[in-house]
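Worked example

This section walks through a single chain of length 406. The input is the sequence exactly as stored; nothing has been trimmed or padded.
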Amino acid sequence: MTVVAAPPPPAPAAAPAAAGSAAEALVPLPQLLGLESYNPNSLLGTFLPRAVLERRGEPTHPALEDWIEIFRHSIGSFRRTAEADGSLPEAQRAVAAARFADAYLAMVNDEEQRELKEASSGGKDLRPTLGCLELCRMREQALIAAGFSDIFSDIKRTENEGALALLPGVCAELDQHTEMRDRWDAVIRGVFAGNIFDLGCAYTTDMYHSEGVSFHATRAKLLPRPWVIDDMDALLDRLCSHTYTRAVLFVDNSGADVLLGMLPFARELLRRGTEVIIAANSAPSINDITAAELEALLPQICAADPVLCKGVSTRRLQVVASGSGLPVIDLSQISPELADLAAVADLIVLEGMGRSIETNLHVRLSCDQLNVGMVKHPEVAAALGGRMLDCVCQLRCAAAAAVGGR
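Given that input, the structure is written out below as tokens.
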């Protein structure tokens, strides 16, 4: 397995003022270690211009130019989705969508030229100042400035309805596993299968619009192990031998991802006696679920499964806004409510490519930490030394984190 080493971090980015966070003052996750040097971006070592990487004798793919092109290429898809956004009068949509596209393209091009100009000076200590978090934040800022608040709203609603219909069957399937290890294995594989519903990636967006995304088919066709980061055996050992007091689950996408992947994960923790806090976005971003949207689905979730219903009614299962409005997350900037609830948590789960791979793959926490997600960008696969649709299952236990181990 090949894992990109954590690069020396640049100065942490300032807290966002408009897009990407709630209006309230944000605070660090209590378990976050090394706050002074923490930078959310995981793959910063590959965010240098190709010429710089070549001079240093380092792999030249991916490089800054490749990451910029991912976001530049996505503009067309986002523009088309914005043009269909029913929250704006039909006569205004095309103009507003064009305004977004032009503004974001200018932002991306300006950042690329700035980084390339700085690199041309040839300084040996050049460090990247741009990462996935900053590029995502710029995109949300451009959408908001153009008058859009949630361009994926209709898609999320449709996918949530479809996934809710499947939830009782998924839970019933899991209950057929009498051996705890087999059951947890099926739960974790379901998390990976759900995570394929991601409209922030060209590959999975094309898949969604051309043939749809099937939870059951994806689960059956997960890439064979070993995965690019594969702590699955250690994770199963830990889950079968240990009961956590409280777990915080940072969830990702709407639809199958949260409802058929992460909710069954939460359900199994509840069955083991663990309190579960589901941390979802405070504000919309791509097709990510928001806390408000998930809260609104709780009555239907309760009707679908008695274990989840009992968790909700006893408040052993709670949904809370994370403080973020991005498809990635800065753990030094979360909502005070989440920080209070997370203070006694002994398990933090970061789910999805944005929150667990593109950001926070190298983060150190003072409790057990699980990074779990599917690789959906070729550039991420190349940076990790893996394959497209590979899986990341990284477990760091508290003792290892405290001494700086993997």
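What to look for: Residues 1-18 have pLDDT under 50 and may be disordered.
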